What we know:
It contains eleven helices and twelve strands. The protein is α/β, with parallel strands linked by helices and 241 residues long. Strand 10, helix 8 and strand 11 (195-199) form a beta-alpha-beta unit. Helix 1 (33-43) packs parallel to helix 3 (64-73).
Amino acid sequence: MIELIPAIDIIDGQCVRLTKGDYAQKTVYSSSPAEVASDFEKIGFQRLHVVDLDGAKSRHIVNDQVLRQITEKTALKVDFGGGIKTDDDIRIAFENGAALVTVGSIAITEPERFLAWAEQYGAERLILGADVRNGKISINGWKEDSSEELLPFLRRFVDAGIRNVLCTEISKDGTLQGPAIELYKAIMAEYPQLHLIASGGVSSIDDIKALDAAGIPAVVFGKAIYEGKINLKELWDWQNA
């Protein structure tokens, strides 16, 4: 059964969502991310994906205190990303309660640093963020496209023992137009050992069921919750039927 991971994106300490990663297309849903996280926990969810969008834009961790508020208020297993660029950034994330840290840009710009972190903290505590636009990896809060093709990019890290990969199809993110199922199937066909987390475009419980049917291990979803497209209790009941 697919792992369900609700998401909280943070700008200025608030719970927001962007469309296609565009900071100009921002919707604020709550001034208290910790309260939103608590509501997820009350339903029964055990995992949470938190993105520091200020951090992603600034290239260093910004909303570490919001992370701390969430991890102190709940027992959720939080994976945290956005702006993790230095040894201090990743240390701060773990010190403020992150169970896992998602790292994207550094894997492109400083792969040896990423692999050193995997050795220091444990590969199981790192998630490789592979954000994709037009088949190429995008970095620095999706503001820059690299020359790296997705599947070859993943090879080095899979060979080094990385198993957690979060893949966001940027053209789908925040659009509520359905996930990039064929992309995720292609990744799983190439690297069946991965714990692949699909992200972007989820608009309904049917989308999540389709990902589950395709054999995708996990899914992150956010906007569909906040726009009322997914009833979380109904989703939880389906998973636990």
